[in-house]
Design a protein that fits this description.
- Helix 4 (78-87) packs parallel to helix 5 (102-115) and helix 5 packs antiparallel against helix 9 (324-343).
- The chain folds into 2 domains: 6-122, NAD(P)-binding Rossmann-like Domain (Rossmann fold); 126-255 and 296-301 and 332-348, Dihydrodipicolinate Reductase, domain 2 (2-Layer Sandwich).
- It is built from 9 helices and 16 strands.
- A 9-stranded mixed β-sheet has the order 15-12-11-10-6-9-8-7-16. A 5-stranded parallel β-sheet has the order 2-1-3-4-5, with helices on both faces.
- It has helices spanning 15-24, 40-48, 57-61, 78-87, 102-115, 129-139, 173-188, 304-314, 324-343; strands at residues 6-11, 30-36, 68-71, 91-94, 119-121, 146-154, 193-201, 211-218, 223-229, 239-243, 246-250, 257-262, 273-275, 278-280, 291-294, 347-348.
- The protein binds nicotinamide-adenine-dinucleotide.
- The site of nicotinamide-adenine-dinucleotide has 25 residues, from helix 1.
Length: 350
């Protein structure tokens, strides 16, 4: 191993633990010392995947060769594992949602300060191409003045797995997917949030939400709709963004979608069309030459940049890409969303 390499240990070897292993094994200066999972089968999985397994969390954090503990366990356990790992002298990468609420996150951040350790949250969906393309269109003003954004994920398989169904483990879709969509939305529209209104859905009768719809109003008057659905047999687009000069949609992770912008070609006053049982001029289509369709831009993205950034933060060479104050803001935003649902009211946010 070279002197600038880092030794990782994985706590939790389920779906996401295995994914971290896969990515870390492609990073030259990352080395995996081993894993610990409370489930015997998962320990066996790790052994079968060629990883060393520790017999306990204490044994894992007592290994002096480990620099970074990567937490991929259910949400309710993140706080204690993170604090104990930092107390034992390790830097920590933690899965999202970082904790169940902002108070727990505060405790972690206090511990990071106390033990002088780097604590980073894996908000990996900031590296998704669909988000980065929308951000590029927004930042470059391609659609003019953007006034509304919709960001959603729709599926029809209900809540997956076991612990995600239970409140005690931090289950539910707002914490699971909402944390990603909200994290990206507030980076896309870097403004103060004026207010939010959120409705959680319980279509499947679980004790936790199986989806939600949340309206976000920004200081400038821009609005957003963020939506997660797990009983949607037809999926609406991942993204819809509309501005004074055009609109863009991205339908799916294969990047189907398009950008429509207004041309300089004059569009004469519309002629009314027959629509349904009536006539409309307002909703008549535009003249063909007055808009143009262009394909979505494409962006190369690599999630390994996240891990690389964490190592450089430890070395003091870079600022964190995922900043803990951003993570805290999203925890508070989700708390406001739960409150909005409970009280069926618009919540003033910032
Ligand atoms: P999972 O159920 O597949 O795996 C969790 C594993 O943690 C299980 O093997 C379980 O036995 C183990 N575990 C539970 N408590 C433990 C403890 N105290 N010590 C050690 N091991 C323990 O769940 P998952 O889908 O891998 O989710 C794990 C975390 O990763 C969650 O926080 C989830 O939100 C997050 N996640 C993130 C993404 C992403 O894209 N960033 C995707 C999926 C899951």
């Amino acid at each position: 191993m070279t002197s600038n390499s880092y030794t990782f240990a994985l706590v939790g070897y389920g779906g996401m633990g295995k994914q971290h292993k896969k990515v870390l094994q492609t990073i030259d200066r990352a080395h995996i010392a081993g894993t610990f999972d409370i489930n015997k089968q998962r320990q066996e999985d790790a052994n079968n995947d060629g990883l060393h397994t520790y017999t306990s969390f204490n044994e894992l954090v007592s290994d002096d060769s480990i620099d970074i503990v990567l937490i991929a366990t259910p949400n309710d356990s993140h706080k204690d594992i993170a604090i104990d790992a930092m107390k034992a002298g390790k830097h920590v990468i933690c899965e999202k949602p970082v904790t169940l609420n902002s108070k727990e996150l505060e405790e972690i951040l206090d511990a990071a300060k106390q033990y002088d350790k780097v604590f980073a949250v894996h908000q990996n969906r900031r590296w998704d191409e669909d988000y980065l393309v929308m951000k590029k269109l927004y930042d470059e003003g391609v659609l003019g003045d953007v006034f509304h954004v919709e960001s959603r994920v729709h599926g029809s398989r209900g809540i997956p797995g076991d612990w995600r169904h239970e409140k005690a483990y931090g289950g539910g879709m707002l914490l699971d997917w909402g944390v990603h969509l909200l994290d990206r939305l507030v980076l896309l529209i870097p403004e103060k949030i004026k207010s939010i209104y959120c409705h959680l859905s319980y279509v499947l009768g679980n004790e936790v939400d199986d989806g939600f719809r949340m309206q976000v109003s920004f200081e400038s008057g821009k609005t957003a709709l963020v939506e997660v659905g797990t009983s949607n047999y037809i999926s609406l687009p991942l993204w819809y963004m509309t501005g004074t000069n055009g609109a863009a949609t991205i339908h799916d992770w294969s990047m189907n979608g398009k950008v429509v912008t207004v041309t300089k070609h004059e569009d004469h006053d519309a002629t009314p069309i027959e629509a349904g049982a009536g006539l409309t001029k307002t909703m008549a289509p535009r003249g063909e030459l007055s808009t143009q369709d262009t394909p979505l831009p494409r962006i190369k993205t690599d999630i390994r940049d996240f891990y690389d950034n964490v190592m450089k933060v430890i070395e003091g060479k870079e600022d964190p890409i995922v900043k803990n104050e951003e993570v805290m803001r999203i925890m508070k935003l989700m708390e406001a969303a739960f409150l909005s649902h409970k009280t069926n009211s618009v919540i003033d946010f910032e």
